[in-house]
Amino acid sequence: MLETLNPQPQDKILQLIALFRDDPRDGKIDLGVGVYKDATGLTPVMRAVKAAEKRLWETEKTKTYTGLAGEPAYAAAMLGMILGNGFADRAAAIATPGGTGAIRQALELIKLATPGATVWISAPTWPNHPSIIKYLGMSMAEYRYFDAETRGVDFAGLMEDLARVAKGDVVLLHGCCHNPTGANLSAPQWAEVVALLSARGAVPMVDLAYQGFGDGLEEDAAATRLVAQSFPEVLIAASCSKNFGIYRERTGILIALTSADRKAVVQGNLNFLNRQNYSFPPDHGARLVTMILEDPALTADWKAELEEVRQNMLGLRKQLAEELRRATNSDRFDFVADHRGMFSRLGLTEAQVIRLRDEHAIYMVGDSRINIAGLNAQTVPVLAAAIASVCG
Ligand code: LMR
Q1: What domains, with CATH codes, occur in the chain?
Q2: What is the average pLDDT across 340-361?
Q3: What is the pTM of this model?
Q4: Which atom of ligand 1 is found nearest the CA of 11?
């Protein structure tokens, strides 16, 4: 049986981890996978997470199963963080293994409800989006998103493409901090997208993996909140990997907004999908997040540290834009300071990306996406000089 298997293409982002690890050169710089790193290159365990873990170790009495949907307290805390108040009566939710688990379960739910639905994704998007959609055998379409000239959003192209969405189609939107580009819709643009998709009768699916990494915890939820208010049905796949720094704990949530009448049936279907795929969702990370969000002192400390993380990335963006201005003697990379989140797509060619790797030991995804948090004050000028040399 197994001899029939063909090799699978490697995930381009994960492939870089191994390439970087095997590079013996001193001073190599990893701008690949989206993991936050501080100035010393460490991905720290956040203070509030450590405190919650200590408390959990002292107080936890059992490790018996939770509910199929995970703990209701986790869903309530996450709903509050993402949407604020006022949605509980129409929100069904399941805890999932990370944001990817939430995306997978959202797509499974769509398939269960409307097997023929088309899922629209931005061009470009996080490579795992099309990969899972294809794997599930679902129909997929793309809408233009990125303007390669300005490195901003191609808003005219996006609106033109989304005007072709059919009733009942699902449109996958990045709630904030677009991955891989770093280019984001403005508030007025979000309002236009919401109006268009409402008029088309689309079902929005929001991927929210970086809340707190862009303009702030509340600000980064604004678009998702607008979407939640504006549609009868919305799917939200959220991750705690980045904003709580608990990547390996696999902590995510899928929220399905529906009518109060349909909530119980939708919840039952979500529970069913958890049962089919892995039974009970992981609990440890979800429990830590709940403890942090339910305790005002832990919440305050977590928010303060998250804000430091955000400010650090903003500072690096500013410094990189300035260094690139100097190194290239042009303003062509000024967009780096305007982008938000962990990533920026620089607009380099694949050949230039390979030269950066071969000649300068600088690793980024082949589409020239960089993880800003992979930099520090010392490596920013090194990157800027290297980019100038491959662009010259
Ligand atoms: C990324 O885009 O680098 C992150 O979301 C990590 C991943 O799993 O790809």
Answers
A1: 11-45+310-391 (3.90.1150.10), 65-294 (3.40.640.10)
A2: 97
A3: 0.97
A4: 9
